[in-house]
Each structure stands twice: as C-alpha cells, then as structure tokens.
C-alpha cells in the first residue's frame, strides 16, 4: 500500500502549513474563541479565499474535485494549529451529504455559498441516550401535502449555534432503533419552531442543543431517500471519522514537538529535564504512538474509497481505535511532562489534550470502535 504523497499533494501540504503558521498561532485561536459563535469570520473568509472550502466539491459545482487525501492534509494542518473554525461540520460533513446525495437544486443552492464562505452547516444527529448508534433516531419527520414537519430534539450539535442550515436526521417511519425509515433533511437554522441553546465545549469549539417544534420544511429539503437514509449517514460519518483521525494526528504531532522543546529548556537540579534517560524513553514512546496513529490515519483515508461499506466501516473503526489510544497516551504524557503549567488555560498543551479527548469521543469512542472491529472479524 502506497502512503507517499504525490508531488502536487506534497507542495499543497507545505504551502498550507506555511499559511497557517503565518496567520494562526495560539494567541489568534484564543482571540477567535471570544468571537460570536466561538470562531472567526475573518479566518473563515481567509480559508475561502485560499480555496480550502471548495476543495472536495466537484468542478461542476465550483469546487476543485480533490479527494480524501487532500482532506486528510487539510485536517492534519488544522489539527496542528488547533483551528476552531467549522471546517469539519461544514465542508466535510455538510458538504459530504450534498456531494453524495444532494439534488442538482440542493447543490446549486448551498455549495457555492459554502465555497465562498457565506454559509456554514451543522449536522444534528445525536439524541438523548442514543450514544454512538446512528440509527437510534426518535426525532420524527411527518409527511404533509407540501413537505415535512420535523419534531424532536438534538444534542451537542457541532457549530449548531451559528450554522445557517441544519442537516437533521429524522424518522419517517418505524420504531426508534429501526435501521430503515430514517431520512436526512436540510432545515433552515432560523426556521419557525427551531430553538437553539448554544454553549462552548471542553475543547473550545461551540455546540448547541436544538429543539424542533413542528418545523415545516418543503418536500425538496430531503437529501436522498427519506426512508432509507442510513447508508448515506454511515458513509458521511465514516468520512468524518477519517477526517478526525487526520486532525488528531496533527494535534499529536505538534503536542509532541511542543513537549520535546519544553523538556529541552525546563531545568531541574541544574540541568534540562530532557537529559534524564527516563524522560527520553517516554518521549520515544510518544513518537512511536504518533507514527502508529499517522499510519492508521492514512489507512482510514484510503479506506474511504472502498466499494464495500462493511469493509470500509471496519477499517475506519480500526483506525479510530489506534487514534484514540495514541491520542490519550500522547495527551496525558505531554501534560505530565509539562508539570503544573500543562494544566493551565494559558499553556496550549492542555488545549491539545482537550481536543484529542473530544475527538476520541466524536462518532464513537475507542471501546465502541474496538467492539465494531471485533464484530467485523478483525483484531487490533
């Protein structure tokens, strides 16, 4: 299996790393966190100006027609800089639904606005007690003469506080845990009957709990088959998991580099603590964990294009297991090696650990995916 980037991909990675290094440092992140919605419209516009928001969309829709590898490169770069702008929610997840199943009219109405940065999306999926099961949906969508009426409540909707459009999973028939009878609907965030309660999450990103009280939407708001949307949801969720794996690798990479620089300068007993052999061994273990995670992130990226959805899900689940393990180990060791300063809000190392922890619990934690891998007939 070839993990090498092409020359074009390598140049893209280098230019993106330079761009973010110039415009997005830790102080910039802290300023962005204080803006309305928890992220910067100016930074989002900069990402749009450099074509990053249009990267995965087809050229016919105004994008660049890039693939999963380019998304991996972007997410890893965003992870290194702890970028909090809603690239995952809008481009990867929201854009994924439109790319795979959006009608021509839906693509025309939403994709150009995503690409130019004037519209953001949010995926409203998680419900009370549903845990990580994508098919556990109690929110309903009742068919009417001219569309649908959505009723229910969603929790921890990433970017839900400031999104212009909500992509909502809702049950059109059957019982709460049936795998059939689930639809995906585009609901205006300011629609009548939509109530949002926004809040900052532990990692600095913002989310919202959203209530849909008899929200009327048109017949053209359903993405794909409104009675068999689970395969589409699973596909987009797997793409989001692969993107999160890449973001985690970026966060782990910079976390390790920051920690090594710190132990080279932090002195104890008159010498740098990095000279202690036990800490050198610990840093070496962190490096091995990072390289394991990097390999599995690439593995997940390549798995996205598999034709067999069962095989795709199993391989991406295996990657999520390794990412969770490596992220926990590197995050904990980084904070411990920093000592007390690692526990403060002023030090970025703790922010890396928080983001890695949230990534581990997004779209399934390590135990959940280890169970999926085991049930799929493979071992990690």
TrEMBL record:
Any coiled-coil regions, as ranges: none
Domain Acyl-CoA oxidase/dehydrogenase middle residue range list: 123-215
Requisite cofactors: FAD
Alphabetized SUPFAM superfamilies for the sequence: Acyl-CoA dehydrogenase C-terminal domain-like, Acyl-CoA dehydrogenase NM domain-like
Acyl-CoA dehydrogenase/oxidase N-terminal domain sequence ranges: 6-117
Domain spans labelled Acyl-CoA dehydrogenase/oxidase C-terminal: 228-375
GO MF entries: acyl-CoA dehydrogenase activity; flavin adenine dinucleotide binding
UniProt keyword list: FAD, Flavoprotein, Oxidoreductase
InterPro entries recorded: Acyl-CoA_Oxase/DH_mid-dom, Acyl-CoA_Oxase/DH_mid-dom_sf, AcylCo_DH-like_C, AcylCo_DH/oxidase_C, AcylCoA_DH/ox_N, AcylCoA_DH/ox_N_sf, AcylCoA_DH/oxidase_NM_dom_sf, Pimeloyl_CoA_dehydrogenase_ssu
Family from the record: Belongs to the acyl-CoA dehydrogenase family.
PANTHER family membership: ACYL-COA DEHYDROGENASE, ACYL-COA DEHYDROGENASE FADE28
Name of the protein this chain belongs to: Pimeloyl-CoA dehydrogenase, small subunit
